[in-house]
Amino acid sequence: MKFMKIKSAPLMVLALLALSCEDFIGGDLNADPNKPLDVPITGQLGQVQIQLADVYGGSFSRFNCMFVQQVEGVERQWSSFNSYGIAPTRFDAAWEDLYENVFIELKTIKSVSEENGYNHYLGVAKVLEATALMMATDVWGDIPYTEAIQGADNFNPIYDDQTAVLYPMVNTLLTEALTLFAGTSGPIVPGSEDLYYGGTIDNWEKAANGLLARYYLHLGDYNMALSRAQQSFTSRADNMGYQYGADPASAPWYRFNNGREGDIEFHPTMKGIMEGLNDTTRLSVMDHIFTINGDTPHPYFIAAQKQDLITYREVQFIIAESEFNLSGNSSVAQTAYLNGIEASFQELGFDAAGSEYTAYVGQASVDPVSGFDLDRIMTQKYIAMFAQPETWSDWRRTGIPALSPVSGTAIPTNWDYSLNSYLFNSNSPEQMTAPASLLRGVDWLSNW
Question: What is the model's pTM?
Answer without folding.
Answer: 0.91
